Amino acid sequence: MPDTAFPTDTEARILAVSESAAKRVAFLIEQEGNPKLMLRLTVSGGGCSGFQYGFSFDETVTDEDHVFEKDGTRVVTDDASLDLLAGATLDYVEDLMGAAFQIKNPNATASCGCGNSFAV
To answer: What b-and-e string marks burial along 84-99, b requiring 16 or more CB atoms within 10 Å of the CB?
Structure first.
């Protein structure tokens, strides 16, 4: 019997990028001065809830990577991270408390108060 906690069909293995996130990533890449850069989103063990999100810039795509594009901005994630991110949305939110990237992850059963780590 398949594990229903993680989507298995190709269509469910998508990472959506909001318009706000795409604009912010494009701005940050422009500040870096290298139009070849992409935002790399990773998931690793750790954080206060079991897994944590990582963000970095990268201009390399490997055979294990998946690239998602919104308005010309590219976000890349590796295959193992996509297992935990499938169906999630990368957003950028600005409010009175500050501004930050947020992951709206339907696979997370719990997350910490800061939103940087999660459990499945």
So the answer is: bbbbbbbbbeeeeeee
List CB contacts of 107: < 8 A, sequence separation 6 or more: 5, 6, 84, 85, 86, 87, 88, 120
Q: In the predicted model, is pLDDT for residue 83 greater than 80? A: yes
Give whole-number Cα distances, 48 to 8, 22, 34, 52, 60, in Å: 27, 28, 34, 8, 30
Which residue is associated with the tokens 């947020």?
A: 102
Q: Which amino acid is at 31?
A: Q
Q: What is the pLDDT of residue 45?
A: 84
- Dmax over CA atoms of the chain, in Å, equals 49
Supply the pTM of this predicted model: 0.81
Residue 86 and residue 7 in contact, taking contact as beta carbons nearer than 8 Å: yes
pLDDT band, residue 117 (cuts 50/70/90)? low
Strand blocks (E) in 1-96: 16-17, 38-46, 50-58, 65-70, 73-78, 89-95
